[in-house]
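Posting for a labmate who doesn't have an account.
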Amino acid sequence: MNSLLLAAVGVAMILAGYFLYSKFLAEKIYALDDSIPTPAHQLEDGIDYVPTNKYVLWGHHFTSVAGAAPIVGPAIAVIWGWVPAFLWVTIGTVFFAGMHDMGALWASIRNKGQSIGALSGRYIGARGRNLFLVVIFLLLLMVNAAFSVVIANLLVSTPTAVIPTWGALLVALLVGQAIYRFNWNLPLVSVVGVVALYTLILIGDSNPLALPETMLGLPDRSVWIILLFVYAGIASMLPVWMLLQPRDYINGLQLFIALGILYVSVLIARPEIVAPAFNSSPPEGTPSIIPLLFVTIACGAISGFHGMVSSGTSSKQLDKESDARFVGYFGAVGEGLLALGSIIATTAGFATLTDWEATYNAFGQGGVVAFVQGGGAIIEQGIGLPQSLSATIMATTAILFAATTMDTGVRLQRFVVQEIGEIMGVSLGKIVATVIAVGVALALTFGAGADGSGGMLIWPLFGTTNQLMAALTLSILAIMLMRRRRSPLPALIPLVFVAFMTLYAAVIQLGTFWETQNWLLLVIDVVIIVAAVWVIVEAVSAMRTARDYPGDDDAELRELSVAQIAIGLDSPAPHEDTDAGHHHQRHRGDQPPTRD
């Protein structure tokens, strides 16, 4: 089959989901209402709560949820054949991920920007909240530790990506100042920022940088890991407008340009897909496609981490409720397109089936390396960029997205640590909570040795933990919809499917860990299964109660918004989308929206 046809059908399906299904969800299911002020206005502090232009916020949200996972998952899952991966990515994006991500945003903004973990306490109960936080903590630990290793490996293997990776931080800082301090026009800032980033890519391609193989007794990969955590810890404490927002926004534009280059190359080169549609004879040791496909491809179809970002950072920056459709659902669309690009790069980027089979000779092979090599080959064939530059673009794309996920993950982990402290009656400041979040991840990463290999130690559980988190988030959405007398089916159908497939996969993994005597993963898997099942049982009980719930949870918010608008306090000010950030500086004159 020609890859151009696959790309055209996939893109059409995903975009149809945005224009049709997301409109239905926004109007009939979530009933987004711009008359209700969002937490970004109600609780504006210039640090975490900052009303933000929807395009800038989409950049933060999309790049935070994307990371390397929508590249790695599909790039591994094609070992079962490209058809199952394609169907799960497209159908999952339209009916699972978009609904879940926009729903998590909606749920949080209707509850003062609270995280999914905090919401579980209100809608499921105290026991459910505590168990929920266990799952969240473990998931974030996996993300932060593993992504640091993924990024470090790419920086070591692709030294041409070092300059654009770290130079992007300076670009982001300047973009933040241009938008919020100097009030530059957003399209102008976007063009300048993207040009600067691609200039860094060109410079990096000509000037590869590599650390010495050993520094202070540590291998180069370990030094990169430590530097990444130092950066992530600092970034997580800075006001979102200063680094997080602009970095993610520019990275979002860069990714869409990179995807555009890849898809245009597919249009020009029209390479044939050499991988099998259904692989009837996968390598020995490859697990069953059901249920493992649905946890191998998590990000790119549906991901619990998205709900944590939606409710952890994005909900605190949403300017008005209607923006949730663009930020949440279209953020899932962007990730679906990235996952689709990964499928194409890893199935049509090889010259022959023999070449493909040489890479996919065992389960778990392929991944980012296959994406970079395959995507680079398609770009070289299509628009004629040299193989080295093509590989640098693909590697830089993967690194920047993994890094944005990591620094958002550390910020979210800090929030979780503070929530756990509150439950235990201990008030933890921002610095202390950040040190704990970074310290635990570093301990795991270096727990197995100075090479940082511990960062991947619990990665085999990422897919199942991530999907269980998605199921738990969907259960909260179903309860909230029931309380409002709206159809819960858009949440319940994905909930039942994802919960069944994920628990099935987790039980299969138990057997694997028992056979290999991997007692650490066995214990963690048991904890995750018990916590998830317990929360689901509590959620089902809460759903039964929700059917008889008196009144409408939104009534108080509507009364509050009417009173606020009447006296002119904290109501959203009208603004043009191109004037990002101008309207929310009304309390502080010309100063950036921050207090230190």
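Reply:
Got it, the structure tokens are right above this. The beta strands are 214-215, 218-219.
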